[in-house]
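User: quick one, fold this
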Amino acid sequence: MAEQQVEFISDGLKIIGTISTPDDVAAGEKRPAFIVLHGFGSTRHAGNVVTPCNMLNKLGYVTMRFDFRGCGESEGERGRLICMEQVNDTKNAVTLLQAQAHVDPARIGVMGSSFGAAVAVYTAGTDTRVAACISASGWGNGALKFEGQHGAGYPKFVKMLADGKAYFAEHGKSMMVSRYDIVPIPESLRTHVLKGSIIDMPVDTAQSMFDFTAENVIADIAPRPVLLMHSAVDSVTPTEQTIRMFERSKSPTEMHLFSGTDHFMFAERNQRVHEVVTAWLRDFFPVTGEAKGLNSDH
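Assistant:
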């Protein structure tokens, strides 16, 4: 597998990424490709990104992974994750990937986990250049997601948003908060948070996620195929978020809920997750040949 570091400009900021090409790509051959998006405050080197990229490369796809602005090696205010800006980063990544010699510009999919999954769905729903979408442990309604995540602590979270607005009005800058005050993660799962991930973030990040509703555009992805995956019991993002997106989607969309996994399903290297993705790709977004089952209903 050949890897190359790439960079592109998104809203005036330099974004750093990695493109991986399978070794068996022949001269002049163009392959379908996937952009794999990282999770909340993470980087392109996270297990939930590298593992699916390796899987896709072995199956014959070109892959691209990049650091969202404000994350990893990319430019931008560190920790300032404004969902629509990350959507712009992804759309600009599509533009770069379309120009690669070994990529079929009409067959580029997006894939993401958690925060990256929400961005993937929204990007696919608003950019017809995206040919397929895979969402793992994602969410479609920020306000309901936070209510489910915080449970009894939800009023404290809402107060944090209000305090953030008051702080900005008084000081003219954003109030900083912990990533775990935005997205609670059980101690037992924090080993999956990549070393070097952003801990302190402006409260604007939380407000942006609260306002983000990828579920409103998921139906617009059709007739392009969508795969929605979630753990049946997710300790971070409520499973009902993926169910809501499925209910609002149109054919051809598939949904799979997995027992025996948790929020970081790719980093956990669950074999059934990989088998489902492989089978779905074969039927709906194959490396070669025609896709099957595009006339199937939910």
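User: anything notable?
Assistant: The first strand starts at residue 2 and ends at 10.
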